[in-house]
Structure formats: C-alpha cells, structure tokens
Task: structure prediction
Amino acid sequence: MEVEEQVFEVITNRKSIRKYKPDPIPRDTLERLIEAARWAPSGENAQPWRFVIVEDREKIKAIGKVAGMADRRQFSAEFVAGETEKRLKKIKDPKKRQKVMEKLTGGHVSSFLENAPLVIIVCGKKDVWDLPYDCSAAIENILIMAVAAGLGTCWVESPVMDVRDEEKIKAMLEIPKGMKVLTAISVGYPDESPKPRPRLPRDELVFYEVFGRKEKNG
Result:
C-alpha cells in the first residue's frame, strides 16, 4: 500500500510548470526520464518514439519563438471567429479579461519554452499506425518521472501544430523526412508553485456498462 500511495502522490503532484530555475539537469536524471519513456507501452511493441534532447540556448530560444508565433496565429484566428469570448466568459473582471486576451493574442502562452534549461522534442516513425497513442504514453511517463525527480515539465504542442512550423523544427534539429514531430517538453527545476487545477468529479466521468449509467448494479 505504501508504494501505491507514493505513486498516486507523484501523479497528483504533477502540474504544468512554465517558470524554471537556470540550473542544468544532471545527465543521470535526464537518462532516468528517457528510460521511463522507453518502457512505455506501444501497439505491437513498435516503440516508434525518438527523443531529441536540446540544451543549446540558441536552439531553445528558436523553438520558443516558433511556439510564440504559432500561439499568435491560433489565438488571433480564435478572436476573429468569436471563440475567444466563449473562452473568457467566466472571467468577470474586465482588467483580468484584457490581460488574458493580450497574453493569448500576443503569442505569450507557449513562448516560455525559450527560458527552459532543456527541451525534449518527441518525434516518431510516420509509418507506425498507433504513433500518437504510443508517443503519448511515453510522454506521460516522462512527465511523471520528472515529478519524482523534483523537476517540472510542460507538454507543449504549439511548435509543431502547424506543418510549416513542424518543418522548421525538423530542419533545425536535422530530423529526417520519415519522422513526425509530435510535441516539445520543457524540463527544469520549478521556479513557481502553481495551484493544482480543479478536476471534474468522478460521477461526471465514470459510467457502468453503458454511457450515462452512474450506479453499478449489484
């Protein structure tokens, strides 16, 4: 039971961290993260994932710039389409709404990547059928192991959501054509302690035998 509780505590302590101390990540700690990812499940044991470790400051800044530009395009399009108002409808304070609006349309949601001491680019073989599912399992293993190691992470898709941005990342990191870039993971020692974001109650999420049945018969 003690091990079970420890594992559960690590899972529930995971939060997306966007501010990091400048301290470098020890090589043995980084290797433990990748080893955790390597042991993720994959369809037919395909193990399609590949990981590019980026520590060069100029490359990390460039990745952050791509992410910021992607954010600006995405959220500006949402604003024009009227979707931003829906996103912000729960924020009643007009000053806070304006601040959030500026952050979204100004490309400041994911550009924090440029300040991470390390970025892991996750890519995989395009010809593997279960690629996104397999790699998602590996990514989650990294996020959980990072918490156990006292690190913070954030799973960021912005740098590669658009195929044009993906091509920029592939060129920068010399990733071959047969690979699909799925995400970037920022890694570092946390320099913030955000509150856990609320989770939906279980009775809204779990059903028995058929969708919508909240009570288990018998």
Remarks:
- The longest helix spans residues 57-80.
- The longest strand covers residues 179-188.
- The helical segments are 2-13, 27-38, 57-80, 83-88, 94-105, 131-148, 163-173.
- The chain has a mean pLDDT of 91.
